[in-house]
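Service request form, structural biology core

Requester: graduate student, group of Dr. S.
Request type: structure prediction, single chain
Budget code: on file
Notes: please return the result as structure tokens.

Sequence provided:
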Amino acid sequence: MDERLLRFFVAVYEEKNLSRAAEKCFVSQPNISNGIKQLEELIGKPLFNRHKRGVELKEDAHYLYPIAKRIIGELQSIPEIFREGSLKQKVVVGIADSISQHYKRSFFNILSNEINNIEWDLRPMAQECEINILVREWKFESHHFLPLWKENYVLCIPENHPLAEKDIIDLIDLKNQPFIHCPPCEAHQQSLSILNTTGDKWNTIANCATKTDVLTMLMAGLGISFLPEYLIEGAKGFVVKPYNGPKYYREIGLSYAKDSLNNPAVKQIIEHYSK
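Core staff response, request fulfilled:
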């Protein structure tokens, strides 16, 4: 469709007069009349009733007007969008639920300064995202994994628990203590390994679907748990205690498909962290 037909239509709609619309568009009245006729033939609907004093707007004209205004506006903005330095580089980033603000803040702060004109599209972790920030164990099968950080697990004890007063916790101290677990999480087996070191039993007080739920139960004072050190940043109601026993960590990084590198911004991100 010729853009001029939409401009002619908008002028007639706003002026409600063919002569004034022609003046507004710097064309002759026959040009305006022919343009409106072509447009009506294209869409298969009459837009105006002509009379001596001007035109009367039909219902379909009211429907078309906002569409025509939007299209004309978008066409006018194209030169500005493609003007040097103004075109945004969009990157779709999926983020796993338990990634702490500490790492997310670092990632977006560094890269927003490193890569010009980047536009972030943040979503929950998903295979179709160009990049995912997640734990190594959650990497999608067909994706590459680029490790960025190692985050230690720490022993968290409610502040009203008797063990909160002890300087260093021995694993034997955890015998029969109420524990909060997260079976779906990558660290569940690691937590069990720590607790099984002494061969003693422990008391499961809750099984949670996410680490965020574990943190909620911990802050409520219901039990003890191992959690990533930065996930608990700023949380209250418990203390972190050093302990004598095996130490574990989780590896956080970027999961991405080979095709994602077709996006120049994604390629820059991977190159930046691969140095």
